[in-house]
Design a protein that fits this description.
With about 300 residues, the protein is of the alpha+beta class. The protein contains four helices and 17 strands. A hairpin with a 6-residue loop joins strand 14 (about 250) and strand 15 (about 260-265). Helix 2 crosses helix 4.
């Protein structure tokens, strides 16, 4: 082999060795650090949302009852002197869960507030999974000094049940009416918006009771009134010998807890029956608590 040929072969071997892949070592292979996808997302997207109502105890709230906006601390807005009132979360009536698209871990918060001796209506606040407020509602829409009785939440809508609604003849204190309003997600407005308000009617409930009495359906009547009320109306109809008729209007009773509707038998000496309509404990609908009949004799 000539010297020139030997030099060419040595140069070729060096080039091939340099281009060949490195052999794995006998020790453990070193793995490059994994890249976290979450670390590349905005901080707001990393929020865990609301898991329980406990997460609402320190949420930010808007200005309500004349108090400045701020962040709750253990369910109360700090920095308010007792003489000036308060802002607090009603955790028992608040809800967490799916409330809108992209808010699978959202929340519905109920706030009560006071301006120092002056009663205000309660507020319903909506938050998405990033803990951003996406809606608010003042129950003053039903009237002054109203408050939330309860909240029902589904993935499609949230319904707030309201109590303390003032009806005809009722004074500044203690309205006996109840109602509800449902909220749905508005894609155009990108927030939760309220629908129409609905008021529960004491007369409509009393009419259901009278209808059941007239068709001699005792079991059906007991769905709308107590056994005392059903018995009195049952006997009154038998005494009158004809169906009972309900007066067109009901009015505030002598007690602040109810309304009186009057049932009577036309064209007889039978004047009528006072049907006391109230709300059973924990219920939003009307119910006939008792009935007392009277005649012209």
């Amino acid at each position: 082999m000539s010297l020139i040929t030997a030099l060419i072969l040595m140069a070729t071997a060096v080039v091939l060795a340099a281009s060949a892949p490195a052999r794995a070592s006998s020790g453990p292979a070193s793995t490059p650090p994994a890249v976290s996808l979450a670390s590349t997302e905005p901080a707001s997207a990393m929020s865990t949302g609301f898991r329980t109502t406990k997460d609402l105890l320190n949420v930010r709230v808007p200005s309500v009852c004349g108090h400045k906006s701020g962040r709750l601390k253990n369910g109360k807005l700090p920095g308010i002197k007792p003489i000036n009132g308060f802002v607090r979360l009603d955790r028992s009536r608040s809800k967490v869960g799916a409330i809108a698209p992209g808010a699978s871990k959202g929340a519905v918060a109920v706030l009560y507030c006071n301006a120092g001796g002056t009663s205000w209506s309660s507020f319903v606040l909506f938050y998405n999974s990033k803990r951003q407020m996406i809606g608010r509602y003042d129950t003053t829409a039903f009237g002054p000094r109203t408050d939330v009785h309860s909240v029902r939440r589904t993935a499609k809508k949230t319904t707030a049940y309201v109590q303390g609604v003032k009806l005809s003849g009722e004074g500044l204190c203690c309205g006996t009416g109840t109602g509800r309003v449902s909220f749905t997600w508005s894609k155009a407005q990108r927030k939760m918006v309220p629908g129409k308000r609905f008021l529960y009617s004491e007369r409509a409930k009393a009419q259901m009771l009278i209808n059941a009495i007239n068709r001699r359906d005792r079991r059906g009547a007991l769905r709308h009134g107590s056994s005392q009320a059903v018995n009195e109306l049952w006997h009154a109809r038998a005494a009158a010998g004809r169906n009972l008729v309900l007066n067109p209007t009901c009015f505030r009773s002598n007690r602040v807890t109810g309304r009186d509707c009057i049932a009577y038998a036309p064209d007889t000496g039978f004047w009528g029956i006072y049907v006391r309509m109230t709300h059973r404990k924990g219920a939003i609908g009307w119910f006939a608590a008792r009935a007392d009949w009277f005649s012209s004799d």
